[in-house]
Amino acid sequence: MMPEGRVARVTQVIAASPNSFDEAVKLAFERANKTLRNITGMKITEFRVMCESNEIQEYRVTAEVIFVLE
After folding, report:
1. What is the number of domains present in the chain?
2. CATH number at residue 28
3. Model's pTM, two decimal places?
4. Residue of 21, 22, 64, 67 with fewest CB within 10 Å of its CB?
5. Residue ranges in the chain assigned as alpha helix (H)
6. Would you state the pLDDT for residue 26?
7. Cα distance between residue 14 and residue 58, in whole Å
């Protein structure tokens, strides 16, 4: 008997932190985890910063959240 296959889906989220990229990634995961079940990974596709008055004001990440469909 062959093992049952899996089907996954990818959804994109954007998260921001005033402190770091690392914190933005963690926020993206925490928020996605509130609504999506069976998360198996995330792919960070973009890093950006918002600047104002010659200083970084916000760190932003775009992430693809991968989860297995039930």
Report:
1. 1
2. 3.30.1660.10
3. 0.86
4. 22
5. 21-35
6. 98
7. 12
